[in-house]
Structures are given as C-alpha cells and as structure tokens.
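[audit] Reproducing an earlier prediction to check determinism. Same input, same settings, fresh worker. If the tokens differ from the archived copy the diff job will pick it up downstream; this log only records the rerun itself.
[audit] input (231 residues):
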Amino acid sequence: MNTVDAVKQVLLRSGAAWVLWLLGACLVITVAIIVERCLFYRSRDCDLRALARRLGRCLAERNVAAAVEELGRSRSVAAAIAAAGLELAAGGAAAADKAMQSAAALERRSLERWLAYLGTLGNNAPFVGLFGTVVGVMASFEELGRGAGRAAGATAGSQLGSQLGSQLGSQLIMARIAEALVATAVGILVALPAVIAFNYFQRRVASLLGATEVLSNLVLAHLSQTRDPEV
C-alpha cells in the first residue's frame, strides 16, 4: 500500500462525522464568546458626556482627589485611563500622558481578548466544512467504484437486475454526496456569526478607545493650566 492509499483509507475510516462535531463545538464556543464580549463591552461603556461634565467640575476646582474618586465610580475604559493619568498628576502633563498611554495599551489588550479566535474561525470554518465534504465525496466515489465492480461481475442473464441495481446505486451515491455537502453548509453557518461578531467588536473596541480621548485631553488641559498660571 502506497502513501496515497494509506491516507485515503485513514480518511475513509474516520469519515466526515467528526468534522460536523468539531464545527458544532466551534459554534457553541463562538456563541459563548459573543455573549461574554457583549456583556463585557456594555459594562465598560458609560455616559461620556455626563462623566466629562462631572470630571470637569472637579478639575476646575483643582480637586484632583475628588476627580480620581469620581472616576473610580465608573467601570468604563475612559475613566480607567483618565484615572491613571491623574494618579501621576504631580509629575506634570508629560508624565500623566505617558501613564494614560500605558493604561490605554492595557485596556486594549483586555478589549481585544478572544477577537483573534473569532477572526480565525470566521476565515477557516468554511475550509473545515469543505474538508468534511471532500471526505464524504471520497467515500461516495469509493462506494460507486465498488458498485461498478459488482455490476461488471454480473452474468448476462441478470442484465435487467444489474441495470436496476446500477440505477439504485447511482441514486444512493447522489444522496450521499448531498449529505456530504452538509459539512460545507455547516462550515459557512459557523463562519457567518464569527465574521459578523469580529467586525462589530473591532468597531466597538475602536469606539471605546476613541472615547478615552475626551477625558484624556481634559486631564492634560487641566495639568497644563495648572503648570502655567498665565494660560
């Protein structure tokens, strides 16, 4: 037995059922990640306008402690980054800016968690389904070859029976090919929500991080004004 035959036998014995189970497990994981990410992003969002107004009042009074306390009441990404800058307010605007950049990098890492899985699954799930289809088609043609061999060995006296058997065999092969195509359909079904969620979450992350500039610039403006009384 050469290498090609050995690989063919392994694929035929394994079948395509495990591909469907794999895709089903990936779909369950995808749904769990989508739910978890939606809840997480919702918890890290806030009414930015109201928070900026309250923070501005504290900074206008030059009460950094009250500003940090106000930010601590919020779980939003913008509040966490602005609080990191105020913690180094004594070092000036440059120190606060570096602190907020570091905090933003940490927040981005948390916000982008599991997104790589969604992107990878969205790109590769159709190929996994196609692999299952190929294995199913191989099994169908293998069965077709066996049926042709049995028909060739039939006697002339049973020619009519052989024709009927050939027709039934062809119908069976077509039915099995149709079943094999289910794997491709399932692969696309698994990929669609993963791709949609990945694109949506990417925009959500960009929106949350972009909103942090509102509070960050407010903090830097306060520190610059504090350092330069003439401004």
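[audit] rerun output stored. Observation attached for the diff report: The chain has two domains: 8-41+119-194, 44-111+212-227.
[audit] end
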